[in-house]
Amino acid sequence: MRIHIATDHAGLEFSQTLQQHLAEAGHEVIDHGPTSYDPLDDYPSFCIGAAQAVVADQQAGVDALGVVFGGSGNGEQIAANKVEGARAALVWNRSTAELARQHNDANVISIGARQHTVDEAIEFIDLFIATPFSAEERHARRIAQLAEFEATGAIAGHEIR
Ligand SMILES: O=C[C@H](O)[C@H](O)[C@H](O)COP(=O)(O)O
Fold first, then answer.
1. How many helices (H) and strands (E) does the chain have?
2. Is 57 known as a binding-site position?
3. 157 annotated as belonging to a binding site for a ligand
4. Does 41 reside within a domain?
5. Ligand 1 contact, 34 CB (< 6 A)
6. Which residue, 73, 78, 89, 144, has fewest beta-carbon neighbours within 10 Å?
7. Residues assigned a catalytic role
8. 20 in contact with ligand 1, CB cutoff 6 A
9. 144 lies in a domain?
10. Reported confidence tier of residue 126, pLDDT bands at 50, 70, 90
């Protein structure tokens, strides 16, 4: 699988360790930055770049997912979710890693590098990558509603109050 990775200064060490782990597992890893440590760098452009690449790959039929890291993972998730077609999930334990795929068909995982050990993060990411979307009708319906809102600002048959 192709894995697009992005972080900021808070996750740079995690990102480097994880890239090595994923490459050893046979994945094609594409790093969207940063390339060096700068405590004043800003996560949005890195994470948006990774999310855009995931969406573009998936639209082209390429098997791809994204991984974004930061201190909390919050800003990185928010940034990734600004990209149309991105479904970024903040993951903080094994269950949220699996549910992000099973229920949400998340295509980007966000993790707080200051909240976990690198071994925990690797465990969450491996689980996320290995878990398929359940494709159950109720989950597919809800994901389609999100895409519809993204495209039209409305959800047919549902009043937004
Ligand atoms: O949500 C944002 C991330 O957690 C950032 O990694 C974090 O805000 C960076 O904080 P600082 O600039 O204080 O290192």
1. 6, 5
2. no
3. no
4. yes
5. no
6. 144
7. 76, 103
8. no
9. no
10. very high
Q: Whose CA is nearest to atom 2 of ligand 1?
A: 75
Nearest Cα residue to 48 out of 8, 18, 16 = 8
* Residue 42 banded pLDDT, cuts 50, 70, 90: very high
Q: pLDDT band for position 27 (50/70/90)?
A: very high
User: For residue 34, is the peptide bond before it cis, meaning its omega torsion is within 30 degrees of 0?
Assistant: yes
Select from 43, 68, 114, 115 the residue to mutate for testing ligand 1; criterion: most ligand atoms less than 8 Å from CB. Answer: 43
Q: What is the DSSP letter of 90?
A: E
Give me the pLDDT at residue 96, please. Answer: 98
Tokens at 36, concatenated: 């060096």
| Residue 143 counted as domain residue | no
pLDDT (0 to 100) of residue 133: 98
Residue numbers of the domain that contains 16? 2-133
- Number of compact structural domains in the chain: 1
Classify residue 124: in a domain, yes or no.
yes
* pLDDT number for residue 51: 98
CATH number for position 25: 3.40.1400.10
- Asked whether residue 15 is marked as a ligand-binding residue, the answer is no
The answer to whether 155 and 149 have CB atoms below 8 angstroms apart is yes
